[in-house]
Amino acid sequence: MTQTISFANLNIEITQSDLEVVYRFKGDVDENFRHQDVPRLKCPSIVLELAEVNNFNSCGIREWIYLMRDIGALGNLKFRRCSVSMIDQINMVPDSLGGGQIESFFAPYYCPTDGETNQLINVKEHSNSLTNREAPNCNCPKCGTKLDFDALEESYFLFADQAVKAAS
Q: Tens of pLDDT along 3-25?
């Protein structure tokens, strides 16, 4: 079963099976987002796909935290493919996770040949470097060149300790 909830700048596609419900967010979490309009579906596994979350504002994050508190009580809450904007928000407002676990996230890198790129990082796979707040080594998917991390590791990976502990 799939349904879509739409706000002015955000769409949420919700797909439910017997063992998992997936909320796929696309757009901006802003003043138009109303947490009470998002269905709460109880399921053993609740996954938030967040690769296409672009921006948050103060009104949006307040609504987001209310939603995470509610959804987190309904099953095992997992965050997958968190966008760079989502990670920035988690680092500023840890309650953004609502007790959920980050399984994977995008991190900003730079290729001297191809420019800026975001790389998907799996928390379990890269737990050693994340524990040390170091960017995992990545190569450019286009040219194969070793990428340079394009943020401050110490601040970008603030969330990493909690994520690695939860993944263990």
A: 999 999 999 999 999 899 999 99
Q: Count structural domains, the chain.
A: 1
**Other beta carbons within 10 Å of 111:** 20
Helix (H, G, I), strand (E, B) or coil at 59: helix
- Amino acid identity, residue 11? N
Residue 167: per-residue pLDDT: 72
CATH number at residue 151: 3.30.750.24
Nearest CA to 91 among 135, 157, 25?
157
Q: Give the distance, in angstroms, between the CA of residue 46 and the centroid of all CA atoms in the same chain.
A: 13
Cα–Cα distances (Å) from 107 to 39, 67, 118, 162, in that order, read 30, 25, 5, 17
Cα separation values, 121 from 79, 85, 125, 148, 164, Å: 12, 15, 8, 14, 12
